[in-house]
Design a protein that fits this description.
It contains 15 helices and seven strands. With 311 residues, the chain is an alpha+beta fold. Among the domains are: 58-102, no CATH class; 257-301, no CATH class. Strand 2 (33-39) and strand 3 (43-49) form a beta hairpin. Helix 2 (58-68) runs antiparallel to helix 3. It is globular, with a radius of gyration of 21 Å.
Length: 311
């Protein structure tokens, strides 16, 4: 997740559409899979699966280069021709080209860096020669267990961003999120949603959509898209240490999904405590904290979140 500098509301539909296109474009170049995403006026979320990088052929490297630089400008044509020539020639020069291209692939940080840099250049150029930073600090990331309840719940939380903001009552009506694109029949978005629900037995998009909608709205309300509790009422229940149905819980701002660091089953989270401790130079290992507020199942995070969790 990444926010604009000063949390400013800078993105209208035109900007959101360009950022949407860049997310899919850069994902193709980097070889990562977008499972879902949501672009708001001052931030965006994207749920990425980074596959293991096997041997990538030279033909595929050239295809990906064309994906990232599709316009046939003089510079890009010359660059493509030079890269193609070096790869065909082989030797040390070809190895160096491969290494430079592969270094930008199969990596979340490189994906986010490329998306944010390319969009910043476009935004500044199309807004009166604006200059300076567009994004606030580095992006936030949460390591999510790549299957089952953790993955499905994170995907639903991301798709519900425009509902929490009061823009729409149903995320299918908000064009700048993965769920809406899947409903509209966009192939890449459908593939991402099926991947999210594959462990549930969803092999086709229709079953994945039904399962996702059931999680978003609750089984009884999945057809109407209505919820019984308002956001204000839901937060009041949570502040009193009560619990809510998951469909109502997901309509609240839940910092576990943005600041929890690692999200998954208790066993999954526990498996990363040593690495997390070393990376942050902590003297004591972190605790595995059960996610509260609803019937999340065996869902836990590595961050206790002493400040307000719900909002």
């Amino acid at each position: 997740m990444s926010r604009t500098v000063g949390n400013a509301f800078l993105f209208e539909d035109r900007e959101k559409e360009m950022l949407r296109k860049m997310i899919w474009q850069v994902a193709d170049f980097c070889g990562v899979e977008v499972l879902t995403y949501c672009i708001m006026s001052n931030h965006f979320h994207v749920l990425i699966q980074v596959p293991c990088v096997d041997c990538i052929s030279d033909a595929e490297l050239l295809r990906r280069f064309k994906v990232l630089y599709p316009k046939p400008t003089k510079y890009q044509v010359a660059s493509f021709a030079e890269i193609e020539r070096l790869l065909l020639a082989g030797g040390d020069d070809a190895a160096e080209v491969r290494q430079k291209l592969l270094a930008r692939m199969g990596d979340l940080s490189e994906f986010m860096k490329t998306v944010k840099q390319r969009f910043s250049i476009w935004y500044n150029r199309h807004h009166g020669n604006r200059f300076g930073t567009l994004w606030a600090d580095r992006f936030k990331s949460v390591l999510v267990e790549g299957s089952g309840n953790p993955l499905q719940t994170m995907a639903a939380y991301i798709d519900l961003n425009p509902v929490r903001a009061g823009i729409v009552e149903d995320p299918k009506d908000y064009r700048f999120c993965g769920y809406a694109e899947a409903v509209a029949g966009v192939v890449e978005a459908k593939r991402g949603l099926v991947a999210v629900w594959s462990d549930y037995g969803a092999k086709r998009i229709d079953s994945a959509l039904r399962a996702h909608r059931s999680l978003i709205f609750g089984k009884r309300a999945s057809e109407s898209g209505l919820t019984e509790l308002t956001r204000k009422q839901a937060v009041k229940v949570l502040e009193a240490d009560g619990e809510l149905p998951m469909s109502a819980m997901l309509r609240c701002r839940v910092r576990y999904f943005t600041d929890g660091a690692i999200l998954g089953s208790a066993e999954f989270v526990r498996g990363f405590t040593d690495v997390w401790q070393v990376e942050r130079g902590r003297r004591h290992p972190p605790k595995v904290n059960r996610v509260r507020g609803s019937g999340w199942g065996d869902l836990a995070v590595i961050q206790g979140l002493r400040r307000q969790v719900f909002g």
